[in-house]
What we know:
Layout: H1 6-16, E1 22-27, E2 30-34, H2 35-45, E3 50-54, E4 57-65, H3 69-78, E5 83-91, E6 94-103, E7 119-125, E8 147-154, E9 159-165, H4 168-178, E10 182-185, H5 187-190, H6 193-202, E11 206-207, H7 217-228, H8 230-236, H9 240-255, E12 268-269, E13 277-278, H10 280-285, H11 300-304, H12 310-321, H13 327-342, H14 344-354, H15 360-369, H16 374-384, H17 386-395, H18 398-401, H19 404-410, H20 414-427, H21 448-475, E14 480-485, E15 489-495, H22 496-499, E16 507-511, E17 515-519, H23 521-554, H24 556-582, E18 588-591, E19 595-600, H25 605-608, E20 614-618, E21 624-628, H26 635-649, E22 659-664, E23 667-672, H27 675-679, H28 682-698, E24 704-708, H29 716-734, E25 737-741, E26 757-767, E27 770-779, H30 786-793, H31 798-812, E28 817-819, E29 828-833, E30 838-840, H32 860-871, H33 879-892
Parallel strand pairs: 1-5, 7-10, 9-12, 10-11, 13-23, 18-22, 21-25, 21-26, 23-24, 24-25
Antiparallel strand pairs: 1-2, 2-4, 3-4, 5-6, 7-8, 8-9, 14-15, 15-17, 16-17, 19-20, 19-22, 26-27, 28-29, 29-30
Helix pairs in contact: 7-8, 7-9, 12-24, 13-24, 14-17, 14-24, 15-16, 15-23, 15-24, 16-20, 17-19, 21-23, 31-32
The chain binds adenosine-5'-diphosphate (ADP).
Amino acid sequence: MTEATGIVGEFLSLKADTDADVLAMQCGDFYEFFGDDAELVGEELELKVTSKSSQGQSYPMAGVPLADLTPYLKALVERGYRVAVADQYETDDGHAREVVRVVTPGTFVETSDADAQYLAAVVADQGSDSSSGSGSGSGSSSGDETAYGLAFADVTTGRFLVAGTEDVDEAMTELYRFAPVEVLPGPDVRTDDDLLAQLRDRLEARLTLHETEAFAPKRAAHRVRDHFGGETVDRLDLPESALAAAGAVLAYVEETGAGVLASMTRLQTHRGDDHVTLDVTTQRNLELTETMHGDRDGSLFATIDHTKTSAGGRLLKEWLQRPRRSLDVLEERQASVGALATAALARDELQDVLGGAYDLERLASRATHGSADARDLLAVRDTLALVPRVVEAVESTPDLADSPLSTVVNRVDRERAADLRETLADALAEEPPSTVRQGGMLKKGYDDDLDDLIERHDELEQWLDTLADREKRQHGLNHVTVDRNKTDGYYIQVGRSAADGVPDHYEEIKQLKNSKRFTTDELEDKEREILRIEEQRGDLEYELFQGLRQDVAERAALLQDVGRTLATVDALSSLASHAAENGWVRPALSRGGALEINQGRHPVVEQTTEFVPNDVAMDADRGFLVVTGPNMSGKSTYMRQVACIVLLAQIGSFVPAREAEIGLVDGIFTRVGALDELAQGRSTFMVEMSELSNILHAATDESLVILDEVGRGTATYDGISIAWAATEYLHNEIRAKTLFATHYHELTGLADHLPRVANVHVAADERDGDVTFLRTVRDGPTDRSYGIHVADLAGVPAPVVDRARDVLERLREEKAIEAKGGGSSEPVQTVFDVSSGSFRGPANADGGDPEPATGVERDPDAEAVLEDLESIDVNSTPPVELMATVQEWKRRLDLEE
Ligand code: ADP
């Protein structure tokens, strides 16, 4: 096969030198793709594929106009491709091409999405001295020596965060929280199959194996110090693994040529003591940013989000995913939300003003990257102009002026913001074009040389505008116009009737049907001059514009500050709007105090349902609630409501309740068994147990734990035993505030044995054969005969109902559960002793012989139905199914009416 030469050859050789999946190579006014790349973009982007021959071979070819590359890049990186972009530049002998950038999911600067776009690096440092550095997380260590370092950068906003932890789950939680689009695993992570698999399964991110030298500790640390300054790095006292991750991210951003490093002005890290653990499972179970079905609508975030700007929306989401524990921070936010909730008019005004704000963090990145055009800089100007209006709206409203919001808005360096706004206002034309090379972007008065050019240009235009009239007058011509087009340049067009009378110095250039076009030496001179001036103007404006853009880029930190402030005002106003419109109240916060919610509601469910409010009261003496109640009565909603209210309180929000007192927690842990999971059997039970295990490892006495059924995925006795032991452990050892919904009624007996355990139940009512769920949570265990009432109401024969009461009675007496089964005719006696929480087999059962079942027909059919009746779990079976089962029993007992 002959090697391709010419343009295709150049393409293939550039492609061979990059590790990108696709190459886009500039050829004049187009970016072209050849060979496999052309096929790929043809398919992925529905581009037309033609062919190009080289050395007798034909190569597929596809292309997009220069100006249209961005949307195609976006589509490709969103599908996870890395795209190299080669630009063409002039050389002494023609032109050459060079890859200037590799665009990847995490380094795509031009995104138009509002969401944050994080690039992450994760480093595992085996055998490290994990005590070094205080940047490590507060979660409990799982006992190994590995330290994990994480770094997150959003190239579109310049945000840069680092974190360190010794706990792999916490590392995963952080990763999940940031939802990066691209992850760079460090050398030790690449050999950890388990972690790699988790990264693949849990994140929707491209995993990029970036060169390992970038992660080398010394080199990485050097790079981080170089970029953010040695002092900052020393002050944060970061562990080596975190520095390695940060260094690798910086190296990657630089090497891909995104050109935004300068927008990363600040290195941020976690505030250890202020951290609230919110693991992946909990974020999902509480439907924080999306529902269990993956929809954004119906999530807690979508419900409370009334922000007016994308930066405000990003910040509010960040708050929700990163609740706080610092009383100062939270009370400050609460005070602002409270003031904004009261000052409705000022809030409207603020939200109105914010509606005109552009995304300053994004614009700062674009300026740094060099891709901002004049319209982007206008957007910067206009957004900076809102600062005084925001400050004014706050300061002129006494409620707001006295609130911490005043401090928030006054934190901005208004003078510098005003300076930059003025510079831009003085420079930019009102309606600049979107191109940056052709002039028209800058105003008169901005630069003397440019003014000269504009003036000369204006004069020439003036001369041209009046030329037709002059020619008419001087030469007595009719029907004369002067115009310009691409092929003819400037011309004098004379109507056919007058065309014969033109003076001699007119030189004919074109004959049309009804007219002729002429030029003159003078006109040609002027044309040359005007073209020269236009070119000079384009060049000079571009140069001046670049200077202006550089000025903006150098103030990236200022823009980020202002952007952050506006976003904060936006997020606080959003919380205030929601509180005001939904009757939410300010919770009283305390460290380590009680959790008391009076008439609480579920923040999402209350939007769509006539919600029945409920109370919760937990304190040092009552820290563990066993929640019982029939299926579908509202147990799970109640528990999630409590978790959501605590979470909202810990972002500084008001909460859906009449009154609330929230003892701040250091973590929220949930374990929720979805029904479809239960159907999947054993492997899901494994998941259930590993979730339980995580909670038992990570929760502390300051945590909130929500357990919605534990042990259901296995046999009854297994399940009860696990639930029992977990309860004891949570109660005695961990002492976390716990809500535990269970269908094991045996557990309600725990309240008699463990001092801090209390029973609550969701009430249901049966009247006239109808079952009503009251949705009201009351103290005490659920009425266990509820199911038998239903059976009775449904017309189950009296002997069966009686026998059921009898069985129940015996269970109540906490004596024995008689388990028959296994096809054996011998009943097997197992005793479950609630006071000790243990089972005893028939051999050592001290309850004597099993009581014979008395007063029951010994008919085998009835016996079989009774067996069924004993094995059915009334409280976990939906009423409809119960009815059907009862009907089936009636059929078997020949009792059908
Ligand atoms: P359980 O966990 O007991 O099976 P769920 O919490 O799933 O029950 O609630 C069942 C249904 O009842 C849900 O559709 C929920 O929206 C509704 N619900 C729960 N609690 C309330 C309440 N306090 N007020 C109104 N509707 C509720």
